alpha-L-rhamnosidase (Sphingobacterium olei), 913 residues
Amino acid sequence: MKEMTKSIGLIFLLCLSLTTFAQTRVDALRCELLENPISMDVLQPHLSWKIATDERNVVQLAYHVLVASSPEKLAQDIGDLWDSEKITSANSIQVIYHGKPLKSRNECFWKVKVYTNKGESEWSNVAQWTMGLLHYKDWTGRWIGFDRYFPTDNVEEGRLSARYLRKEFKTEKKVHKAIAYIMGMGLYELYIDGQKVGDQVLAPSPTDYTQNIKYNVFDVTDRLTEGDHALGVVLGNGRFYAMRQAKPYKVKTFGFPKLQFQLMITYTDGSTETIKTDDSWKGTANGPITANNEYDGEDYDARKELSGWANVGFDEHEWLPSEYVQEPGGTYEAQLNGHMKVMQDIVPVTVTPKGNGRFILDFGQNFSGWVKMKVKGESGTRVTLRFAESLENNGELFVTNLRDAKSTDHYTLRGGEVEEWEPRFTYHGFRYVEVSGYPGTPTKTDFVGRFVYDAMETVGTFTSSNILLNQIHQNAWWGIASNYKGMPVDCPQRNERQPWLGDRPVTAYGETFLFDNTNFYIKWLEDIRLSQKEDGAIPDVAPAFWRYYSDNITWPGTYLMIADMLYRQTGDIRVLEQHYPAMKKWINYMATRYMDTEGIITKDSYGDWCFPPVSIEAGRGQIADKKYPSALISSANYYYLLNLMSRFSLIVGQDDDKLSFEKSADGMKKAFNKRFYHTEGFYGDNKLTENILALYFGLVEEGNKTQLEKQIVRNIEVENNGHLSTGVVGIQWLMRTLTEMGRADLAYKLATNTTYPSWGYMVENGATTIWELWNGNTAHPKMNSQNHVMMLGDLLVWYYEHLAGIKSTENAFQSIIMKPEIVGDLTFVNASYNSSRGMIESHWVKSKSSFEWQVRIPVNAKAILHIPAKDLQSITEGGQKIQDNSIFNILESQNGSVTVEIGSGHYQFKTKL
C-alpha cells in the first residue's frame, strides 16, 4: 500500500493564497482570502479536506488528524491539542474537533493523513486557524465616539460627516505577535502609521446591532517595529445610523458611529501589552468626508484632508478627547463570512458629452460599487458623479426608479497635481454615470468602475450551444454578485437594499452552483434567527432594518429552505441543530394563529408577488407593488414546510416531532384538496402557480396527477401562448416541475423564449443583469429595479441539475445523480461545480447519431449516470465497451437509456443513438 502514496494528495483551503491548493475549511466554513488566518469563536470547529488523485474509484477508509499549538510541534507529528489517531471513517467533511478545550487567542495548526482503498497519503500541508475573543471580558477597552451631531452633519438628509479617531503609542521591545481586534460601527477603515490595514471595504458585515455585532481580526505583526506608532480609524454611517429616519415605526436605527478596538501585543520576551479604546484617544468630525450614507452617496472635500492624521507626530491639539458612549447591546461575534472587497475593475466603454459640461460614462454592464476617478484642476472645483442603471430616450440618466435615493457622489479638489479619489462608505447600483463639473474633457482612462461584493470564489461554470442560455447565466452571475452585501439584498440602487426573505427561497439554492456562499448564508440564517420575536414571529426582512412582521408563510418560510439548502449542499448538520428550535417555534406559531377550523392556513401577505401582466402593454406604467393574498399559496407552502420539518426532526433526533409533523402534513393535504381541488383537474383559479405548487409539493392525489399535468401544459401552451405567468412564488418551482413531469422540452422553451414574459425578453431589451419585473422596460418606475435576483427562481438549479446533470442525492454530493436533459436544439452543455468534496464536471456533446459525455466525479463520491444510448453494447468509455469493464456497475438498460453506477475519476463515454 505504501508505495502508492505519491498518487494521492490532499487539497486544503488555507486562506493565505488564491490558489486551489492553498485553501482550508475550518469549522465547516470556508476561510476568506485574507493575508492572515481566520479568527473564529466556535469551540468545536469542523474540519474538511479534499483528496486529489488521478486514480479511479478512490474511497477514503480512515483518517488521522493532528492539531497542534505550534507549527514546530506539528512538524514533529505532535498533536498536543488533538491527536485523533487513526479513525475508520469515509467522512472527509464536517469532521468535528474533539481535542482540548480551546481558549481565546489560541493558535491552532493542523494536518491530516488519509487511508484509502488505493493507498495511504502523506501528511497534508499545514492549515491554521486562530481563536477569537470568546468572552465579553476579553474586550478590555470601552466603546468610544461622539453620541451627538456636529455642525458638519447634514441632519435633514441623514448624512453624517465621517468620524476620525486616533491614538499614538510606543513599543519599547521587539514584537513577536500583534493582533488587532476591531468593531467599528457602522463602517470603518483602520490605519497603522498612515497605511490601511487589510483590503476589505464596507466592513464589518451588517447585522441587527442590538442582537449581534461582527468584529474583525488582523495580524499586524509586520507593521510594528520597536518605536513610536499611530493608530487611526475612520467611521462611516453604514446601517448603524439609518439612511432614513422619518418613519421610526418602520426603520430601525442604532445611533451614532462608535468604536471598540484593542491591539494585543506579545513581545519576544513573553510580556504583553494591550492598546485599547479609552478617553485618551482623540477625535474629530471635521475631516474631508463631509457626508456619507448608503442611499445618497458620499461628499469628499479634499481641501479638508488631514495630512498625516494617522501618522506619528500629527498635530491633534484641535481634536476633541474621545467620549465614552453607550454600547450597541448585541453579542460580540467573530465575522466568519467573507469581507466585501473590490473584486473587479471595469473600464467605461464610452464617454459621451451631453452639454453644459456634462458627460455620460457607460460601463457596458450593470453592477454595484462605485467609481474611482483621476482629476486635475483648481482648488475648490466640485465634481459631481450621479449614478443610474439606464438612460432616458434622450440619453439622459433615468433616475426615477431610484425613488428618493440620490445616488450621487461629490468631490471637491484640493488643487495642484493629479488627484485620485474613490468613496469609502457608500455604494451604488449602476451602469451609467453622469459626470459634471469635471475640469477639462474627461476620457475613459480617468475613470474605473469598482465592482464590490463579498469575497467568495466562483465555483460553477456553464456554457452551452445556446447563446441565449449562456447570456442569461452571465446576467444571473452579475446580478447575484451585485446583491451580496454582507447579507443578500434585493437590489443595489434604490432607497431599499433590504434582505427580503421572499426573494431567495429557491433562488439561493441556484446561487450555490455559482458561488462558494456557504459562510454567507450561514450568517444570514443567524440574522433571521435573531430577528425572531419571542412568540415565534419571523419578519419579511432580516436583519429587520425594516420592521415588517406581516405573518405570512412564503417569506419567513425561506428560513427553513435556506437551512435545507445548506444541509444538502454542505452536509453541515449543525445548521439544522442550531436552527431547529426557532424553525419549530415559527411553524407552530403560524398554525396556532392562522389555521382555520378546516385546516387551511388563511394568512398570506403577497400572493404570487410580481406575476406578469397579461401583455407588455397592459403593464405599461402600472405599479407592480400590489398584493394578492392567497390561502392556496400559504397552505401549499405550509404543507411543504411541514414535510421539511419532518425530515429535519429525524436528522436532529427529534423522533416524536417527526410523527407530529407528518400527522399535520396529512391533515393539511386532505384540507387542501377539499378546499382547492376542482374535479375538472386543476386547483384554485387554475393559475399556473397554483397548479405547479400542488404538483411539486406532492399535494395531488395519485389518480389526479395526469389531468393536472395536462392543465399545467395547457396553462403554458394555450392560455399563455407558450410563456410563463408566474410571479416570485411560482417561479421558484416551475422549471423542475415541468422537467420532472417529463416536459423538459417545455421548460427549455420557457428558458429560451425572447418574447414577453421571459428571461430572454430581458436580454433582448438590453438587460445585463436580471430585472425585478418581467415587464421591467414598461412598468411604473416606483418598483422597477433592473438588478434583482428573485425572478431567477429555480432556473439556475435547472441549468446545473437538469441540463448538465449535476445533482446531489445524499449528504453533500456523496451520491450524485447525473441525468442530463437532451432537449430542443441543444448540441452541447459544458458545466462544472466545485463541491465540498471536489470538482464535478459534465460535458456532453450530441450529434444526430452519437452522444459523447465527459464526466468527473470527486473522491469519496459515487454517481449514477443515465447515458442516452440505443443499447448497452453501443457505449464505450476510453475506447472500451463498458460492459467489458468491471469498474462499471450496470444498473438498467431500457428505453434508449443505460443506467450505470461509477466511482470517482474522470471518464469519457461515447454512445450511438
The chain has five domains: 2-131, 139-337, 341-454, 460-800, 805-912.
